[in-house]
């Protein structure tokens, strides 16, 4: 599961991070050079100490000292270049995973999206993006350097001390690694409940923030805070329990590192005492043991973190296996018939409707009416490809869109839903969002006047390109509704589908907006409870009668 999850993150990271392989190869080369130079430094110290004791030529000792200092300077320089490159790669990997997660989420079927808790998804996306880069760097910056250092140290010890001593050294190091792997398997089980309860906590926090108005006007702040405190206490207890057990495993592993360090220092001291080692050898071996002690501890910590990162990656990977919308780019030929349902069974509130036969033609205004929950929005969702028919067929003009929706349809069909959105950025960016057409300032200002939105600029003395972020919260429901409708109009659609477009508008504004739309848009399909809207329509589709007639 982990390998599949990491492979998927690697694939999507490569997709959005074009130079990832080149940067990682360069980083690997820097790691190899740093490991080699770091391993050589204690050997230089050995040579300096031994030659000082033997009273060798002072010029030779000068050369050794200068060589040691130059090697140290080179290792530090390469190390900082490596750190800078690592920062770039980490930022790129984390952000590309976030891009990929957004891309994946937006392409999921609406049925799957409706089942996902946004708060939990957000927490898991952020955690997975961090986990992916941390796992990558755990191998590149922790495991690989230690493996290389062990290789270089073993070679140097074998030619300076003995082959048996070097083999014992590498065997003990390998034993430490196996112990770390076993601890990783045990610690992994403690991260699962920790992440799950943290996700729930984040979700509940966002829930309260999103419903702040209802909480305030019902004087429920103290009640909600008290409930949230109970959730927090549960999280704290679980967090302490998990971290305590993980800490116990880490102390167990540190004990083995202590035995490794103590054992080889005692053996080295004995060999020095019986004349099998020089003073320089003793200093070199001590340096190597100390040099490996910190990386060994880092490996312990990284393997511990790896368990948590693995859980995070595996949990998030499940989102990439969810069902996605099946789209194609099939073209259609123009004709009067737009949408056509043939013996279609629509799933409404979990139940399959009677077979529906319905044709909608261009150059008309349709008003879709019916009680709440009767299937008005569901009917629209099938037209937009958000839902797929299980029974019957659905056509747009002369192409079948029952199973696969054509992206070409969006070239002439636009939709405005009940949930109105104003995005961060400028007013111009909000208006020309996702449109291929260019508009002059005069054209945009004219349309703002038509939709009675010119005060966005006048009241605050703003231009079309000024940032409106600080004003987002004060926009009324009616203003958001009109802005969303205008945004759709600017795409110049031939077919405009609207879900309750006048719910937040007063009577005169509703008539003004609807009249403008009817004159400017070739075909309107409108879900409405408004009598004014129904009066303007050429045809009325009552979904209750439609389903009842089909079933009789």
UniProtKB/TrEMBL annotation:
Subcellular location: Cell membrane
InterPro entries assigned to the protein according to its UniProt record, in alphabetical order: AAA+_ATPase, ABC1_TM_dom, ABC1_TM_sf, ABC_transporter-like_ATP-bd, ABC_transporter-like_CS, P-loop_NTPase, Type_1_exporter
Membrane topology: Multi-pass membrane protein
GO molecular function, one term: ATP binding
Gene3D superfamilies per record: ABC transporter type 1, transmembrane domain, P-loop containing nucleotide triphosphate hydrolases
ABC transmembrane type-1 domain sequence ranges: 25-308
SMART domains found in the cross-reference section: AAA (SM00382)
Residues that span the membrane, as ranges: 24-45, 57-74, 137-157, 163-183, 246-267
Domain of life: Bacteria
SUPFAM superfamilies in the record: ABC transporter transmembrane region, P-loop containing nucleoside triphosphate hydrolases
Record keywords: ATP-binding, Membrane, Nucleotide-binding, Transmembrane, Transmembrane helix
GO CC, alphabetical: plasma membrane
Domain ABC transporter: 332-552
PANTHER family hit by this protein: ATP-BINDING CASSETTE SUB-FAMILY B MEMBER 10, MITOCHONDRIAL, ATP-DEPENDENT PERMEASE MDL1, MITOCHONDRIAL
This protein's name: ABC transporter ATP-binding protein
Native source organism of the sequence: Acinetobacter suaedae
Top-level taxonomy: Bacteria, Pseudomonadati, Pseudomonadota, Gammaproteobacteria, Moraxellales
